[in-house]
Design goal:
The chain contains 13 helices and four strands. It is mainly α and 457 residues long. Strands 2-3-1-4 form a four-stranded antiparallel β-sheet. Helix 1 (2-19) runs antiparallel to helix 11, helix 3 crosses helix 6 (128-186) and helix 6 (128-186) packs antiparallel against helix 10 (265-355). Helices cover 67% and strands 6% of the residues.
Length: 457
């Protein structure tokens, strides 16, 4: 029985292996570069070195999008036989490309190499050339879809940045227009040296005011001390001459008075001359003292004018500062708008380059070729497996039969399983040809099981 079960299992496996159609497996290999920097940005993308990056690539290869791209590339979606088979199985319900993609994915095997960035893509079919064509089509579709997944977001960002660039340009032009209009209105150039000139003029007016204030104070002091004993009068040349002439005539008058008397014509003439000199002296003194008042008035007037000019200059500088502050705000608005425009323009240039990229970080290591030998069924392997399974099956069946039909084969079976007292053991019978020295068989009378199990009186 045991050998029969084993032989039946092996024969059945061999027959089935010979009957089954041969399957051919064609494989291609790609490598994913995750360490090289991006050719446009020049930096290593952190997402590529993440632990789940290779698993994501495997999922992309096994996705419906890649499978449908393979169907279009191989024109399997236009096959009348496949369309007819789809209608027979689904009665025309559902999408044909989804049904066909699901069927072709069942025979696809995608495995990433352990501790490596290499991915093996294999397809199994009854035709070796078709299997290799499908495997290569999956590789090509994977490269195309990977490029699309990278380029499509860049195109979307590029269109978004184009719109934002137009808005930023409008804001920049508006800010520049406001600045130009304000400069024309105020007559202020934000980058000229007008402020320095006005500050210098203010300092000059301040210096003039201080000098005039000093002169006015001095003039007021001189005016307060104005008189015959004032320095201006005492130091005046004409007054000194008149005083000298007056002193000489007075001395001569004394001499003539003593000599001729008051009624003498020379004395009278000299008195008239002295009176005239004194009149001229008083007039000159009044003129000098009067000039001090005029000088004081002039100094005060000049001081008032300079102070008014200083106040006007100070107000002008404050106005210019206010204008420059407002202009500085407009200038900062222009600079901010310019920086925003430059940043968006730089991102637009980068995304435009990325949207025009035609290469990925994936390279083909091996192109699938039609296999020369079938991958299944494997007759030798299946035979070895059938022997192992036959042994396991035969052993299981024998154990099952033994458990269902238990026999007494040892003393332990009687004492352990039946819980009966052992009366004796019969020796093995001697057959012809056995050794003569074996003892003769003793015949023992063994009670039946019912008798042994009956209660004794």
């Amino acid at each position: 029985m045991w050998w029969g079960i084993l032989a039946l299992t092996v024969v059945t496996t061999v027959v089935i292996s010979l009957i089954l159609p041969k399957q051919y497996t064609a494989g291609a290999t790609v490598v994913v570069d995750v360490k090289s920097p991006d050719p446009i940005s020049g930096v290593v993308l952190q997402g590529m070195i993440a632990p789940g990056y290779m698993a994501t690539q495997v999922d992309i290869i096994q996705s419906d999008r890649v499978a449908k791209r393979v169907l279009r590339d191989l024109r399997l979606d236009q096959s009348p036989e496949l369309i007819s088979q789809w209608r027979d199985e689904t009665d025309g319900e559902g999408a044909f490309d989804s049904w066909l993609a699901e069927r072709i994915q069942k025979k696809l095997d995608v495995k990433p190499q352990r501790e490596s960035n290499v991915i093996h893509i294999a397809y199994t079919g009854t035709d070796p050339r078709f299997a290799s064509a499908v495997a290569n089509a999956f590789v090509k579709a994977y490269l195309d879809i990977s490029l699309e997944l990278r380029v499509e977001p860049a195109k979307q960002y590029s269109s978004m940045f184009e719109e934002q660039t137009g808005q930023a340009r409008s804001k920049l032009e508006d800010a520049q227009s406001k600045l130009s209009a304000y400069q024309q209105k105020s007559g202020l150039v934000a980058t000229d040296e007008r402020m320095d000139v006005e500050n210098a003029r203010l300092l000059d007016l301040s210096s003039q005011l201080v000098a005039l204030q000093t002169q006015s104070a001095e003039a007021r002091s001189r005016q307060a001390q104005a008189g015959s004993n004032s320095p201006e009068v005492l130091n005046n040349g004409l007054i000194l001459t008149l005083k000298s002439d007056l002193s000489r005539q007075e001395a001569k008058q004394k001499e003539l008075l003593a000599k001729f008397g008051a009624a003498h014509p020379q004395v009278v003439e000299l008195n008239d001359s002295i009176a005239e000199v004194r009149t001229r002296l008083e007039a000159e003194t009044k003129r000098i003292t009067g000039s001090l008042g005029v000088n004081n008035a002039v100094n005060q007037s000049r001081e008032s004018q300079v102070r008014a000019a200083l106040d006007a200059q100070r107000a002008k500088i404050l106005q210019i500062k206010a204008q420059r502050d407002e202009a500085a705000v407009l200038v900062r608005d222009v600079e901010s708008a310019q920086r925003a425009y430059d940043a968006i323009q730089a991102r637009l240039s980068q995304t435009s380059l990325e949207s025009q990229s035609n290469s990925t970080n994936i390279s083909i290591l091996k192109v699938a070729s039609p296999p020369a030998e079938a991958s299944s069924p494997r007759l030798v392997l299946n035979t070895l497996l059938s022997i192992f399974l036959g042994l396991m099956l035969a052993s299981g069946i024998v154990l099952g039969v033994e458990l269902n039909d238990r026999r007494l084969r040892s003393v332990e079976d009687v004492t352990g399983n039946l819980n009966l007292m052992l009366l004796g053991v019969m020796p093995k019978a001697a057959f012809k040809g056995d050794i003569a020295s074996e003892p003769a068989v003793k015949r023992l009378t063994v009670p039946s099981v019912s008798a042994l199990s009956a209660p004794q009186a």
